[in-house]
Amino acid sequence: MDQQTIEHMITLAIEQLAFSYTPYSGFKVGAALLAKNGTFYTGCNIENAAYTPTNCAERTAFFKAVSEGERAFQAICIVGGKNGVLTEYAAPCGVCRQVMMEFCEPDTFQIILATGIEKYDIYTLKELMPQGFGPKDLA
Ligand code: THU
User: Fold this and answer.
1) Which of 44, 61, 69, 128 could form a disulfide with 20 if both were Cys (CB 3.0 to 4.6 A apart)?
2) Which of 25, 47, 93 to mutate to test the pocket of ligand 1 (most atoms within 8 A of CB)?
3) Given 15, 58, 68, 102, which residue is catalytic?
4) What secondary structure, in 3-state letters, does the chain show?
5) Is the CB of 9 under 6 A from ligand 1?
């Protein structure tokens, strides 16, 4: 992935923090998902008074994309922090990693964790979900 695309994805993810709905945790997360065809899908976390219906930023982005017919993805950028202050990487939760397993190739799908345009690291899905269970296991 080229530098310009990485920086664009970080910018899109940071923009999502403004839409993050977090009256309970105050932990704001933004995501930018890149489809293989070059389309970007964004997402934020959306909390709920009943707590468990809360949806993570990553899954918001994936579900927006899949609900519009997209199923092939190359990368996601995730940013997050308490009150939207980005000091540490916000790594995807286990449920979001499992959703990635459904639609992404573990060896090649890139997960960009960032605190800003100057500070990021890139991991493959396989690195964050070793020996993950996915559609291939049911084939
Ligand atoms: N959260 C995400 O949006 N993505 C993750 O991968 C980790 C957790 C959200 C859910 C909840 O709104 C808040 O962060 C605190 O758990």
Assistant:
1) 44
2) 93
3) 58
4) CCHHHHHHHHHHHHHHCCCCECCCCCEEEEEEEEECCCCEEEEECECCCCCCCCECHHHHHHHHHHCCCCCCEEEEEEEEEECCCCCCCCCCCHHHHHHHHHHCCCCCCEEEEEEECCEEEEEEHHHHCCCCCCHHHHC
5) no
Q: What is the pLDDT along the chain (139 residues), one digit of tens a residue?
A: 999 999 999 999 999 999 999 999 999 999 999 999 999 999 999 999 999 999 999 999 999 999 999 999 999 999 999 999 999 999 999 999 999 999 999 999 999 999 999 999 999 999 999 999 999 999 9
pTM over 0.85: yes
Query: What's the CA-to-centroid distance between 125 and ligand 1, angstroms?
Result: 18
